[in-house]
Fold this sequence. Notes:
Blueprint: H1 2-12, E1 20-23, H2 30-41, E2 49-53, H3 66-76, H4 88-98, E3 105-111, H5 114-117, E4 128-133, H6 138-144, E5 147-150, H7 156-167, H8 176-185, H9 190-202, H10 208-216, E6 226-227, E7 230-231, H11 232-240, H12 245-254, H13 264-271, H14 275-287, E8 292-295, E9 298-300, H15 303-313, H16 318-340, H17 367-387, H18 396-411, H19 414-430, H20 434-450, H21 454-471, H22 474-490, H23 494-511, H24 514-530, H25 534-551, H26 554-571, H27 574-591, H28 594-610, H29 614-631, H30 634-650, H31 654-671, H32 674-690, H33 694-710, H34 714-730, H35 734-751, H36 754-770, H37 774-791, H38 794-806
Parallel strand pairs: 1-4, 1-5, 2-3, 3-4
Antiparallel strand pairs: 6-7, 8-9
Amino acid sequence: MALVHNVTQTAEAKRIIPVYVIDGMPGVGKSAFAVHAAHMLQDHFPDGQFYINLHAHTTGHRPMHPADALFELLAAGGVRPAHIPAALDARAALWRKRLARSRALVVLDNAHSRKQVLPLLPGASHCLVMVTSRQRLTGLLAQQASISLALGTLPPEDAAALFGRMANRHFKPAEKGLVDDLTRLCGYLPLAICLLASPLASEPQWPITELVRDLAQTKHHLSRMGAEDVTVEAAFDLSYRQLSVNLRRFFRRLGLHPGPDLDPYAAAALNDTTPDQARQSLDALYHHHLVDQPAFGRYRLHDLIRQYAVMRAESDAPADLGAATARLLDYYRRAAESASRHLSRRAGPPAGASNGAVRRLPPINSRHAAMSWMRVEQANLFACSSTAPAHPAEAVLPALATAMAPYLGLAGPWDRAISLHRAAAATAGAAGNRRAQADALRELGTLHRHTGSYDDAETTLGQALALHRSSGYQRGVADVLTQLGGVRRHAGDPVRATAALRSALAIYQDLGVPQGRAEALNEIGLVFWASGEYGEALAAQREALALYEELGDPHGTADTLRQIGGIQQLTVGYPPAVDAHRRSLDIYRDLGDRHGEAKALNYLGAAHCHMGEYDESRDALAQALTIHGELGYRPGQANALNYLGIVLCQTGAYPGARRLMMQALAMYQGMRNRAGQADALNQLGVLDRLTGDTQSAADRHGRALVIFEALSDALGQAEALVNLGDLLLLLDQEGEAVIRYRRALELAERARLPHPEANALLGAGRCAARAGAPAEAAGLFRQAQAVFQRIGVPGGAKTAADLLSDCPR
Length: 809
């Protein structure tokens, strides 16, 4: 152990040995640690080893007075009782004198305070002193320049090994999971592990499964962690009894907190006090090792100490406990609503009445502060959402879910958010709160849209729409219609998508809601884009951008910039598109919007890929794939996988490319995303051609073309036709190839799609060159070169220039 190594080196170098103060929670093994270390070090301290229990936490004992402790130490050192002076100072002086030239080892176990320990320190520079305490002896550390060793619970592997030694068994591989479960239920606390394992050692016929079953059926696990008169509960009792009456009540109420940790604001709500007073009480419990402080200002109860607090709280009046829980839920609701106002485009006044017992909220006065608070408190908010339905205040859960929705939409996790909003909708429906039910269903439908579950999204949003229409809440109707329009666009139904969005736009205009108008225009632009009407799409997006900029909405600005960039890379060129994508990416990152960030990275990666900048493309797409995967956004994952496959294909890594493209295809099929399926098939066809499987390539390109034609997707048709032309040219079928190139060229020129236009010109030029028409081929190559240069594809321009130089003059 590190202590033994450090002391050994210091002793051998004859340097001053510091005092080691070993603290930790009850049952963590402080005394055992000190005694074990003393045993290992005894050869370095030949002039004596002294151990004394100072009884700070011993049943039936008061903490030992320093004078009494000195009497025992002097007597153990050979001083006759009659020669030991009566006064504390005289005893301390004699103790220091006797050890002044000695190399002795002193263990002061179970210390209560700095005042108790100071007179017992020998003062000799070559004596080792180890002090153990449940309390943090910060005064002693400061005064003596001591070294603090705070013992924590065991790592899971060490906990399992300790359990095996104490049970005196070698567990089978199949039993390893059971041992892991038991040590986890012990909170990895050494005392609890030893007490739980000891019956197995004395009863070798008992199977471990019986111990697991018995513990699972026990309300309080602490009651099973004992042997004779030694129990974990009793160890905790000794610390609890030293607290004041008020601090005991404070501690008991902390056990009601459902989350993993808390701050002084939440503790103040539980205990109906101020945050400053709560902080003082938390620090007092921290001093007694009854709470940990894993990060500054955050406090946590060990699992077993939490159970102990809950057991102690069972003697409190149910009304008192219920009121404390109500205050806590109300605090988290109000704080979440405060944060939500900085994150939501549609945030309004707080829902429901405020409990007057909640006196203060944390200072959440900016978007950055709101994101930070939500990120830190997310686990607590989810825990409160699980507690809320069982509490009489049924309105808490829907209000809490609504307040959390903006953050969860930006940062996830979406699977838990879906469960949250589903529960909120059910709770609100059971309470007859149709408005809250509809809001929860709208959020649920939006999340289904994000995760690519379009059928579920359509159904859920339809239910929300019916509720809002029946109550006459027009803003809610428009909000749901906007989401429905997006869902129908993704599902390949532009007619119904446009109808929903036009209805939403009309309502927003009647109500005078510019924010809603911008969102509806944004979605309308996307429908135009999907239908190949790029001019109309760009006009709608620019109108939405102007509204967002006028409103000062950075999120909407980022959305429209990203989408304008997407249209530009199809119709204008890649450099301006990359600029728009980077601008949107910077905004998303500043906002903490991981969903938007990943989408912008997908677009950026695609643009770099088309420009032949494969390293930049791979980096952006890999980041996008990671974020989409963490959020559970399947459309984004599929797009990133598909383009990563294209990058690998273009750089010659064909096996990896095929694996990624097949994953993308499977995801598109699972989402019934026909445009995505067609694109993946088309790219797989290119890969088949490059790897020599021409029959499969023809089949994939043909299937992709059929889907693109059914969707009236001019871009997809043109790309599939160019790929078919490339395949036919490889097979020396120049006549058939040129027909595909000419059809692709016509589609691209009509839709004003320069990249497929340039590829079609290049293919048609190759056909002309093979047909012995060098002048025609040169003209086509020059046109292709000019287009590639204009849109920022240097690789294509170079290919055209090389082909042009090969043409006979």
